[in-house]
Amino acid sequence: MPSQSSPRQAATAPSSPPSRSTLLSRLPSLTGMRFVAAVMVFFFHSSLTTEPPLNPFSGTASDIYHSVFTKTGWIGVSFFFILSGFVLTYSAKADDTPRRFMRRRLVKLYPNHVVSWALAMVLFAGATATWRQWLPNLLLVQTWIPRYDTFLSINPPSWSLSCEVIFYLSFPLLHRWIKKIDPARLWAWAAGVVAVVTLIPAVAYVALPDGTMSNGFPVSDWQYWVVYMLPPVRTLEFVLGILMARIVLSGRWINLRLLPAAALLVVGYAVANVVPWLFSLNAAALIPLALLIPAAATTDLSGRRSPFRGRVMLWLGEVSFAFYMVHGVVMIYFRSLLGYTELYSTPVGIGVIALYMGLSLAVAWLLHTVVETPMMRRFSRPRRRTPQSATARSTDLRITEAPIDGTRDDVSARAVARTEEKATAGSGASGA
Fold first, then answer.
1. Which residues pair with 252 in a beta bridge?
2. In Å, what is the CA distance from 37 to each residue of 30, 81, 180?
3. Chain segment 77-124, per-residue pLDDT in tens
């Protein structure tokens, strides 16, 4: 691991506030980037002209808006999956146990999911959903069922959490296995994972029946399910994140800077718009995403400037999981009030998108404040703690992790600073 001041070292120096290098070692840029990825998913959903049609624009404006954001949702979700593997590996602790690990992850995941699920059921889904739809969705097993009306039922964005649960269950074993890989071979392993992810759409085109989904996607339900929804397939992106974290921690990173990495992602997005449709889901931009996350992490570790770790971006990153979970509910309900057949001029359509965003952020802030943070504080740590161990845990806070997972180990570098100040004063407050 890079030689930054560790959180545990901070506990031994109660008279000193956490250093800038200590705070940057928690990779705050990844916190801010989480919101950018969530917004990419937001714009994708708000551009849809398929069922339900959330795009509020009429005529040419609708076509332009849809064409600009037609692939951003795929890229945002892949970012979250790779980021999840990266930060879990970066923040892994030798004394952690699978039981404590799963408790933290599930307490982070399920409360927000249950509340957003309940909102969707009350506002629009409950009137038509059957138990074959709402029960798998509630239990986060919907992506194991190859039916469009099931894996994208109730609160559609929650499908990704079904994959995240599998990531968390498999992480202790995957991490232990990948730690045994010779550092000199990590890049080769990463390339192999990319190759397998790229091969899967080709196999789906050849081996699975063609068709058109009921929402208009130009593939069959089976093709879409295998390439994009099936948890074992999406676990490959999670594994890629673990490998990229090991590359950074073992000193094998190629020192690609943040700006060139972001430029590569723009190229990847352009590629996603021209390749066959199944390849655009998670293969076209996979390499740029796998490079962007370590580039942002090493930007923080080296203390270089980053546009993603300002106070506003950190706050937005804090609420990004809640935003991801509620934006679909807000858009579907608000659009139903307006009327799905109502289309608007460009200025009015922009106003509708702004209302989507503002309402989603407001509900996300409320969910984060009332549900997410209190539940994490109450249930994410062992019930019995000695004052000495509690102080150690309070300073052992790390980076946020994705959602879209949207899960995280800390609320922000700013929260870390507040918690460490309390710990050094002898308060014994513990972190998420």
1. none
2. 10, 11, 31
3. 999 999 999 999 999 888 888 888 888 889 999 999 999 999 999 999
Quickly count: other Cβ atoms within 10 Å of residue 13's Cβ. Answer: 12
The two three-digit tokens of residue 213, written as one number: 């989904």
- pLDDT higher at 399 or 37: 37
Q: Nearest Cα to 282, choosing from 406, 199, 211?
A: 199
Cα separation, 285 vs 294, in Å, equals 15
Cα gap 213→203, rounded to integer Å: 19
Query: Given this model, what pLDDT does residue 378 score?
Result: 86
Angle in degrees, CA 362, 368, 372, rounded to 5 = 155
Q: What is the DSSP letter of 371?
A: I
Tens of pLDDT along 121-149?
Answer: 999 999 999 999 999 999 999 999 999 99
For every residue of 253-295, DSSP letters joined together read -----HHHHHHHHHHHHHHHTTS-HHHHHHTTTHHHHHHHHHH
Kindly report the length of the chain.
432
Chain segment 366-389, per-residue pLDDT in tens: 999 999 999 999 887 766 555 554
Closest to 363 (Cα-Cα) out of 374, 352, 355, 353: 355
Residues 194, 231, 432: CA angle, nearest 5 degrees = 95
From the list 371, 367, 378, the residue with the least C-alpha distance to 104 is 378
* Whether this model's pTM surpasses 0.90: no
Query: What number of other Cβ atoms are within 10 A of residue 283's Cβ?
Result: 26
What is residue 147's DSSP assignment? Answer: -
Beta-ladder partners of 397: none
| Residue 328 buriedness (CB in 10 A; 0-12 / 13-18 / 19+) | buried
One-letter-per-residue 3-state SS of 119-137? HHHHHHHCCCCCHHHHHHH
| C-alpha torsion angle, residues 22, 26, 28, 31 (rounded to 10) | -160
| Cβ-based burial of 394 (10 A; exposed 0-12, middle 13-18, buried ≥19) | buried
Residue with tokens 């000695």: 386
Taking the C-alpha atoms of residue 397 and residue 430, their distance in angstroms, rounded to an integer, is 9
**What number of other Cβ atoms are within 10 A of residue 301's Cβ?**
21
